[in-house]
Amino acid sequence: MLRRNFLAQLAAGAASARLCTDAFAYTRKKRLRPSPPPKLDRVAISSWSFHNYFRGTRDSDCILSGPMLALLDLPEMVADRYHVHHFEVCATHFPSTEPAYLLELKYALVHTRSSIVNVPVDIEECGPQGTFSDPDREERVGALEAVKHWVDVAHMLGVRSVRVGPGKVDPADLAPSVESYKAVAAYALARGVHVLVENHAGFGAEHPEELVKLLKLVGPGRIGVLPDFADFPDEPTREEGLKMFIPYAQTVCHLNGLEFGADGAEWGYDFPHAMEIAKQAGFRGVYSIDFVGPDDPYVGIQKTLDELLKYL
pLDDT of 177-187, one tens digit each? Predict the structure, then answer.
C-alpha cells in the first residue's frame, strides 16, 4: 500500500478507535492481568524466536512440530506462559498493516497489559543487498518510503523504536547511509519513534567502530544502536563492541539464546560477562530474548529467560 493511502486509512482507523475506546475499556477491564514484576518489566520476547511457527518465515527444513502462530494470539500466549509483557515484532510477522488489523493488534496488547518495544524492519530494502545505502539517490527513494511506512505502523501501535538495517553499505563511503538515516530519523523522531541500527548482516559486528562512526556522522541523538549480544566473531570483539554500543542503546538490547548446557548456562558466548558490561555501561532499557538455537524455541526461550533473571 502507498504510504499516503496508509496515512489516510490510519486517520480513519484512529477516529474509529476513539469511538470504541470507552466500550472496549469497559468490556476488557475485569480481564486485565496485573502488571509484571520489576525484573520481568525489563524483558521482551522477539517474535523471531518463534519464526518457525510463522508461515512466512518457517525454514524449509524445519522439523519442529506444533501449530502455526497467529500474531494476534502471541501476546496472550507469551503472557500466560512466560509472564512477559513486552515484545519485539518483526515486520515479516505482520500479516497486514491495514489500520483495522493494527487496531485489533492494539486490543490484543491492551488485553494482556503488553506493549511492543521495537519493530525490526526486516524488509528487502534494508537487507544485506538492499538499496537503503545505495550510492544512487534515486535508488534509495523506494527504500526510504518503505521504512517510513513501518515508522507509521510503529507510531500507531505506540512502539518506541524501529530497527533499520543499512542495506548494502560501503564502510569506506558512509555518505549514502548517513543521508538515508538522517531522513528517516527526522521522519521518525517527529512521530516519537527512535531509529536503531543493529550490529549484524555484516556491518558493525566484526568492526564495531564502523557502526559508531555512522552514528557520529548522522549526528548526536538522531539514531541509536540495538546491540546484539551474540553477533560478534569472538569474545574480545564482543567486549569491545558492547562497551562501544551500550551508551548508544536507546531502548532495547538483543539477548540471544544459542545453546545451553546441562546446568542451564549459555554455552554459545560469555553471557554473564556480556550482562556485566551492559550493567557497567548503565543500560536501563529492555533485554529482548531472541532465541536462535537449534532446540524447541518454547523451551529455549524459558532457558534464556531463566539465565537472564539471574543477572538482572
Answer: 999 999 999 99
Confidence of residue 220 (pLDDT cuts 50, 70, 90): confident
CA–CA gap between residue 31 and residue 106 (Å, rounded) = 16
Cross-strand bridge partners of residue 203: 200
CATH 3.20.20.150 fits 3-311, yes or no: yes
Residue carrying the nine cell digits 486485565:
32
- DSSP collapsed to 3 states, the chain: CCHHHHHHHHHHHHHHHHHHHHHHHHHHHHHCCCCCCCCHHHEEEEHHHHHHHCHHHCCCCCCCCCCCCCHHHHHHHHHHHHCCCEEECCHHHCCCCCHHHHHHHHHHHHHCCCEEEEEECCCHHHCCCCCCCCCCHHHHHHHHHHHHHHHHHHHHHCCCEEECCCCCCECCECHHHHHHHHHHHHHHHCCCCEEEEECECCECCCCHHHHHHHHHHHCCCCEEEECECCCCCCHHHHHHHHHHHHHHCCCEEEEEECCECCCCCECCCCHHHHHHHHHHCCCCCEEEEEECCCCCHHHHHHHHHHHHHHHC
Instruction: Quote the CA–CA distance of 43 and 167 in Å, as a whole number.
Output: 28
Measure the CA–CA gap between 71 and 190, rounded to whole angstroms: 28
Rounded CA-CA distance 85/65 in Å is 25
Cell of residue 73, nine digits: 494470539
pLDDT band, very low/low/confident/very high, at 72 (cuts 50, 70, 90): very high
Q: Which residues lie across from 230 on neighbouring strands?
A: none
Q: Tell me the average pLDDT of the chain.
A: 89
Name the residue ranges covered by the structural domains of the chain. Answer: 3-311
CA distances (Å), origin 108, targets 116, 153, 312: 11, 16, 28
Q: How far is CA 129 from the centre of its chain?
A: 20
